[in-house]
Each structure stands twice: as C-alpha cells, then as structure tokens.
Amino acid sequence: KAGVTQTPRYLIKTRGQQVTLSCSPISGHRSVSWYQQTPGQGLQFLFEYFSETQRNKGNFPGRFSGRQFSNSRSEMNVSTLELGDSALYLCASSMGTEDYGYTFGSGTRLTVV
Amino acid sequence: QKEVEQDPGPLSVPEGAIVSLNCTYSNSAFQYFMWYRQYSRKGPELLMYTYSSGNKEDGRFTAQVDKSSKYISLFIRDSQPSDSATYLCAGPRMDSSYKLIFGSGTRLLVRP
Hints:
The complex is a heterodimer of chains A (113) and B (112).
Chain A: E1 5-7, E2 10-13, E3 19-24, E4 31-38, E5 42-50, E6 53-57, E7 64-68, E8 74-78, E9 87-94, E10 103-104, E11 108-112
Parallel strand pairs in A: 2-11
Antiparallel strand pairs in A: 1-3, 3-8, 4-5, 4-9, 5-6, 7-8, 9-10, 9-11
Chain B: E1 4-6, E2 11-14, E3 19-25, E4 33-38, E5 45-50, E6 54-58, E7 61-66, E8 71-76, E9 85-93, E10 96-102, E11 106-111
Parallel strand pairs in B: 2-11
Antiparallel strand pairs in B: 1-3, 3-8, 4-5, 4-9, 6-7, 7-8, 9-10, 9-11
C-alpha cells in the first residue's frame, strides 16, 4: 500500500516568490492535514481538509492557503515568501473519522533565500 | 506556555537501557495522546496512542497517561541503536478534533 507522497522533496525559493506543495494521500483516505516543522517552533498545524472542505485552520497568516481536490490530493500554497517560511512542510492523511490514524509523508523541505 | 511541553534532550543511553520519555500538558480538553517517532529526514511515524489513564503496551514500548497530573510517558525497554530518533507526543483537543498539538520532541540517542 503506497504511503503519503509529497512533492517536491526539496525546494529553494527567493523572498517574495510563491510556492505550491503537493500531497497525495493514502488511497481511501479523505482527510489531509498540513503541518509546518521548524527547529524553534516544532510541529505546528496549518490546516486540514476533508472532502474538499477546510475543516480546521491553524494560526498562520493568510499567505498560507490550501485546497483539496475530488481525488483527495491536496496542495498548499505560500505567497510572498519570507525567510521565516523556511521549514519542513509535512502532510498527513487519515480516513477523516475520529480514529486518528494519521500517516505522515516525508515532507517538503522549503528554503527561502 | 505551550500546551504540550516536552524536554528536547538530547537523551543519550547505552544499548539495552530502559528509556523514559515524558510530556506534560496544560489543558484538560485533550481527548487522548499519541507518540510519534521521527527519524532524520523523514516524517513522523505513529508508534502508539492511548485514550485514557493507565498503561498500554506494544512490544518493547509502553505508553502511560496520568490525567490527574497531566503527565504522559513512553517507556522503551531493551533500547536499540535503531531507536535513535526524535520522539514526539501529541494530542487532539476536544474543541478542535482534527488538529494535533505536538510537543517539541525529545531527541534520543542509543549508543551501541
């Protein structure tokens, strides 16, 4: 059974640019969550999508946005990149019910220069 | 104050030792807790979750929750070098079921 796939694995962008990250969940999983991981703040919740609807949102500025497609694949977008956006962005998928069987991908390492 | 606190370590132990990893939480609204293991350059991997106070065992791993003191622990018996990783505790709050709150993680090094 294929795991959660995140692309690309590594990305280098310049301040002010925008970036789109992609996440393909485990087949049959309808929920996709996004987290930002940094050495200083640890893992912080960005947002969660279920059946193409955003169900939860974390405390991040509006520059961070996401969406989910009908096949449950999800994308997150960060506009007007800042140096502080450099982080590992992790995607997790689950059935979306309260079983909390979250499976994480290996992440996208974003570096903003 | 963070909702879930965890000593960042690093914690260095010899192979075969019993390891104790701990977290405290401040909000009684947490429903239950999970332990994740994260190897370098990988995403977190779910190890165990516990719904209520008490112990839960899975092989060499035991998770313990004490809701009265808001304290959660993960014990690793007969630790192996392959257990060297960062261990993260996490939980969802009742008012925000689909959002996990993570501790900062404890880095564990098991020396051969």
